[in-house]
Amino acid sequence: MPAPARTVLVTGSAKRLGREIALALARSGWQVAVHYRDSLEDATRTSRECTALSGNSASFRANLGNEAAVRNLLPRVIAHFGHLDAVVNSASTFEHDTPAGFSFAAMDKHMRSNTGAAVLLAQALHQHLAERAKSGEPARGAFVNLLDQKLWNQNPDFFSYTLSKAALEAATTMLALGLAPLVRVVGVAPGLTLTSPMLSAEQFEARHKMALLDQSSTPEDVASTVLFALENQSITGTTLLVDGGQHLIRFERDFSLM
Ligand SMILES: NC(=O)c1ccc[n+]([C@@H]2O[C@H](COP(=O)([O-])OP(=O)(O)OC[C@H]3O[C@@H](n4cnc5c(N)ncnc54)[C@H](OP(=O)(O)O)[C@@H]3O)[C@@H](O)[C@H]2O)c1
Questions:
Q1: Predicted TM-score (pTM) of this structure
Q2: Angle between helices 67-81 and 117-134 (to 10 degrees)
Q3: Which of 13, 17, 144, 255 to mutate to test the pocket of ligand 1 (most atoms within 8 A of CB)?
Q4: Exposed/middle/buried for 104, CB within 10 Å: 0-12, 13-18, 19+?
Q5: What pLDDT digit, counting tens, does each position of 136-189 carry?
Q6: Which H or E run includes 37?
Q7: To test the ligand 1 pocket, which listed residue (9, 37, 199) has its Cβ within 8 A of the most ligand atoms?
Q8: DSSP, res 165
Q9: Is the CB–ligand 1 distance for residue 121 below 6 Å?
Q10: Which of 248, 257, 154, 161 is nearest to 210 (CA)?
Q11: Nearest residue CA, atom 42 of ligand 1?
Q12: Domains of the chain and any CATH numbers
């Protein structure tokens, strides 16, 4: 009997970087579970395009700030596809604050969706793979966390976001240690890749060029690195920086606030 198609959940993949990752994985034959929170129409479109590429996809709504919803997500995906091999954690809350304006409310919001949700999803993937292994299947999986070059090039902007990603980077190492050998855990850290409402097209282009290689990451390069992290069976507990070398240049402010 042929092996069932590999299945991956990509969080926050209705649009932007998550969508590019979902499509790149589908192009390589992965069945993609498209996760979204508010972007139902975009998620439906991404899922339809993934189906056209790899034959099967479905979309799943969940607010990653809600523990019950996070705990429910993998069982729903597994019930739909029958199995799950990998998770790409791309969804992210990204709201501005600074040390001077810090509040527990801002910290909670970022830590829940950007850090806590990833840990629970990794835990659930590990449990699913352990159950498959018990029934004699040689089940091994992977979990990729989207990080940010900002962690290696700190400034005080987007303080709670950065704290949550710093915790996620530490969790990447600890999860790799704690969930081996069933789950490999890898970080992928882009530089400035897509623009935000805070930047004009010209401002984005100028900042994207501020890199050792004269160009920060492209969505295609980030997506191909995620694919590499999922498919390379020897990599775990480390982070790949895909940022044209932006982390080696000192920036005093966030790109959107320079
Ligand atoms: N874009 C860049 O240039 C860049 C640079 C460095 C690092 N990164 C990292 O790469 C990843 C993808 O970046 P991006 O720009 O594509 O992200 P984004 O547009 O800021 O967010 C992606 C998705 O996350 C989902 N999301 C946010 N909060 C959520 C919550 N509480 N529950 C469930 N979903 C939630 C939203 O889904 P809905 O729309 O469905 O609500 C959103 O569309 C992020 O982890 C980011 O930190 C990106």
A1: 0.98
A2: 40
A3: 17
A4: exposed
A5: 998 999 999 999 999 999 999 999 999 999 999 999 999 999 999 999 999 999
A6: none
A7: 37
A8: H
A9: no
A10: 248
A11: 12
A12: 7-257 (3.40.50.720)
